[in-house]
Amino acid sequence: MSNGRPPTSHDVASLAGVSQSTVSLVFRGAASGRVSERTQRAVVDAARQLGFRPNADARRLRTGGPPMVLIAIPDIVNPFFARVFTGARAAAREAGFQVVLSVQRDLDSVAADVTGQRIDAVLACSLQDGGRPLEDPVPAVVLDAEPPQGQSSVRFDIAPALTELVDHLHRLGHRSIAHLRSEVRTATFRERTEAVDAACARRGMNRMPVASALNIDAAREAATALLPAPAGSGGCPPFTAVVCDDDVLSVGVYKAAQDRGLSVPGDLSVSGIDNVDLATAVTPELTTVDLPGEELGATGMHRLIAHLERGGGSRGGTGGAATTECVRLPARLLIRGSTAPPADPASRG
Amino acid sequence: MSNGRPPTSHDVASLAGVSQSTVSLVFRGAASGRVSERTQRAVVDAARQLGFRPNADARRLRTGGPPMVLIAIPDIVNPFFARVFTGARAAAREAGFQVVLSVQRDLDSVAADVTGQRIDAVLACSLQDGGRPLEDPVPAVVLDAEPPQGQSSVRFDIAPALTELVDHLHRLGHRSIAHLRSEVRTATFRERTEAVDAACARRGMNRMPVASALNIDAAREAATALLPAPAGSGGCPPFTAVVCDDDVLSVGVYKAAQDRGLSVPGDLSVSGIDNVDLATAVTPELTTVDLPGEELGATGMHRLIAHLERGGGSRGGTGGAATTECVRLPARLLIRGSTAPPADPASRG
DNA sequence: ATGAAAGCGCTAACAG
DNA sequence: CTGTTAGCGCTTTCAT
Lengths: 349, 349
Fold this sequence. Notes:
Largest sheet of chain A: 6 strands, parallel
Radius of gyration of chain A: 28 Å
CATH class of the largest domain in chain A: Alpha Beta
Number of strands of chain A: 12
Oligomer: homodimer
Number of helices of chain A: 12
Helix content of chain A: 25-40%
C-alpha cells in the first residue's frame, strides 16, 4: 500500500475528503471554532491511518521558528562541562532560544555534527586549539579557550588563585613541588602552567613538571613513576606537594601515593583544579580551585545573545572591531584537607 | 542599510549581477567546471558582503537530508548516561543517522526541547515513569525504563548481580544490612529494591531500607542519621553492610562512616551500582555492579534503526504487535575492596 | 557557462 | 465553517 515517501498533508486531505488547508488548520491547533468537530475527527483519523507527521522543515521554512543556538562541549563525562552547559542552556532558554548540544572535541566535528541544521549562533566551550574559525559567518562566542579569530571569549582568570595556592604552600614550608600537567594542548592548560611556573619562580621554589592524559589511570601511572620506590628504599620524594591541573589528575596522585604507602596530606600535599564531585569524594577532601562553570556558560550565552540582538549577523562594513571582547571570570581557591606542611621540612637538606 | 530579514540567495544574485540559480550552484559546491572562476568570486564576495547563509530549512525541504534521531538522557552530570549516549551515538553515526541530544528528565520537556525539529526517531534513556507516550507516531525505543506504551525497550538484568551480592555478603557472615535507595521513582530503582528484598528474604537476612536523593550530600546525611552517634556512645550500627542503589550514594555512605569514625570495610561493607569513576576514586575501591552503558545505548540504537529500516513508520493496520520487544542486558558484579566480614559477628547477639 | 521556471510541504491571508 | 491562492528559500531540470 504505502508509497515510498512519507505522507503529506495533501494525502491526508484527500483521504479525509477535505482540503489541504483544513488539514493544516487542524495540525496547527488552530482548528477550534473554525473546523467542525466531525471534520477534525476525520482529519485526525486519516492522519493516523497514514502515519502522517507534519514536515518540520516545510513548516519552519514558512514560519521561521525560534532562533537556534548551538552549544558545543568537548566531553560529556566531565562534570565541569556539564555545569557550563547547564548555565548556558538556562540563559538561552530564558531568552527564547532553542538549544542544540554537540559533544565534540574540535570545531570541524561540531560542524559535521550539525550539517544541514539551522544554527543561528554558536557557543563553543574549551575547543581544541588551532581549529580554524568557522567558515560560516555565524556569530560565535568562545568559552575557556583562545578565540580563533576576532571572536569574543569568556575565560577564567586562574593565575591569581594558582599564585595564592603556591604562596600558601610556600607559607606552610613547602619548597619543592611537582606540577602534574595535562597533555591536552589548550590555552587554559598553557595558562595554568605559566601561572604555576611564575608563582614558583617568584618564591624561589623548585618545580618539577610532568604531563599526563586527563584520566585517573594515566595520572596514577605518571605519579607513581615520580614517587619513590616502595617501602624500604629509604626515599622521600624530591618534592612535598603535587599541584595538579585538574581534579581528575589529583585523584590519580592520591591513588599513587597510596600505592607507595605515602599519606596525603601527611607526606604529600595534593591540589587540583575544577572542584568537581570527585574533589569532595576523596579522603581527605581535595584542595582545589573552583571554576564557576555555570557562570561561564551563562555569561557566554548572554554575550552571544546581546551580540545577536544588536544585529550581529556580521553585516557589511559595519566596523565590527569593538565586538571582540574577552571577559575573565574569577576562579576561587578552596583550601581543604589536603594542604599541610611537609612531613620533614629538612627533607631536601 | 540592512533590511530586517536575513539575506537570501536572490539578494546575493542581484548584488553579484547573476541569477539566483548560479548562487545556488556555488553554495552547493557544484560550481566547479560549470561556473566561471570570475563569476564564482563575484558570488562569494557578494555573499560575504551581505552576510549570506543558505537557509538550512529551505535546503532540507528540497533535498530531504539525512534522517535524524533524538537521544534523550535525563542528566548530563552522571557518567553513566554519558556512556549510554556515547554508545548510542556511535551506532547512529555508523548507520548514517544524524544525532541530536536532549538532556531532560521527562518526555514532555524533551518534546519541548525539540519542537519544530525534524526528528525521525527517538531513543529515550531512563525517563521518569508515568510520562505518557509521545503523541506523535515517532518510532521510539526506551532504555533502562518501563516502556510507556507498546514500545520496545532495552534494559538491564540487575537482579542476578544483586542476588549474587547479597549472597556474597551472607557468605561473609553479614546478617543485617541497610539498603540505601534512590528517591527517584523509576522502574530501574524499583527493580533494584525488589531484587535486594527478595535476596535478603531468601537468605533470611535483616534489611533496613532508607531513601535518599541521588547526590553525595543527601546520601551522606541519610547515612549519618542511620549510623550510631559519635565515639563513646558504645554502639555499633544495627547492620554491618550498606547496599546502595547507586555509586553516588555509596560515596555519601563512605563520608558518613568517616564522620562517625567507622572504617570501611572494617566496620561497614559498602556497595554501589553503576561502576562510574567515583567507584575507583574512593578508598577502598567500591564493590559495585557494572552496568554496560555503552552497550545499552548501542543495542537500543540498533533496534531503533532496524525498526526504522523495515518501515517502522507505524503504517496503518500492519499488525504492529510483534514489534514490542524487551531485551535485557546482563549486569556484572564487581567485588572490590569494600566487601569484608563484619567487625564483630556477634554484634546483634 | 548561465538563466528561467517548477516545485519541495507547509502556513496564512483571503474568499466564499 | 471550508477552499483557493500565493508564497517561504532553496534545488534542480531544461533551455539557452
